[in-house]
Amino acid sequence: MRLKTFVADSMTKAMDLVRREMGEDAIIVATHSAQNGRSVRLTAALEDDIGRDQQPAPASAADDEDDTDAPDAGTAIEQALAYHNVPLPLAARLVAAGARFASAGTVAALGGALDEAFTFQPIVERLQVRPLMLVGPPGAGKTIAAAKILTRARRSGRAVAAITADVKRAGGIEQLQAFTQILAVPFAPAGTAEELIAALPQKNGTLTIIDTAGTNPFAESEMNEMMELALAAGAEPVLVLPAGGDPGEAAEIGERFAAAGVRRLLATRLDVSRRLGGLLAVADAGQLAFADVSVNAEVASGLAPINPMSLARLLLPDFPANGSTPQSSEAS
């Protein structure tokens, strides 16, 4: 990670400097007022080891074109958030926050607003200490997400092990087991808290990924069972949720899982979803940090960290000013 500090006499000018020197992938990690009270010090970070081909979506060239017919940054952000069905109170906060960075361009303005509104904590396998337990409603994509994390961890050289608590669903054991056999990763099923404790690897330094059965967030017994498993394993529960859901429903899901101790969100199916308001709603309602996103079905390369700028690009594809069907910013 490359860090650089910029000093300017306003936040807008500091953001301009960041964009020019570090590009739109830079993450704002700290802002301070200088001791004299007449300038702003801003620290930005850039992940050098993450290639552009791993980003959830490429930047749109439209932001840098001189197009007199294009809407201003505030209008473009407002239109995009409306298209994605972002809840109105959250959309209003983002538009207001984006106005402070408007001179830096539309993507940078929305990125700055997202950076203020949300936290971003990617899963870094080489640094993860506690086991990761993937939880979420049925059909959210937890098993495939587990396989992607295992694959990425193996590539980084981390020792890993896999456990599935999804022992009742037909094929629940076999699906993850098939991936672990390909990766040559230790695997065990565990249907109870006692079995889960016994299945945890004894070797220090091994990262354990725990897949779970689908949990109905509105069923108290299922949520209690999930929390019991996480407590027994000493695991960090990470919510896995597909994009494209209803924002109101997503917000309630986020609140329920947050109350159960979940602090991070891993979003799936971004490649087949057009409206992402549900993801913003679940993170906002549950105060969940964005971790990673699943951007395609490929187990070997389909998981990527996300930051405010890459999320802004996902929300700001090239779409007509009237808010009709957006056009993908990806090159065809």
UniProtKB/TrEMBL annotation:
Record-linked SUPFAM superfamilies: P-loop containing nucleoside triphosphate hydrolases (SSF52540)
Repeat in keyword set: no
GO molecular-function terms, A-Z: GTP binding; GTPase activity; signal recognition particle binding
Keywords recorded for this protein, A-Z: GTP-binding, Membrane, Nucleotide-binding
Gene Ontology cellular component list: plasma membrane
Membrane topology classification: Peripheral membrane protein
Keyword match GTP-binding: yes
Ranges where the SRP54-type proteins GTP-binding domain occurs: 129-317
Example GO biological process: SRP-dependent cotranslational protein targeting to membrane
Annotated segments matching region Disordered: 47-72
Entry similarity comment: Belongs to the GTP-binding SRP family.
Protein name: SRP54-type proteins GTP-binding domain-containing protein
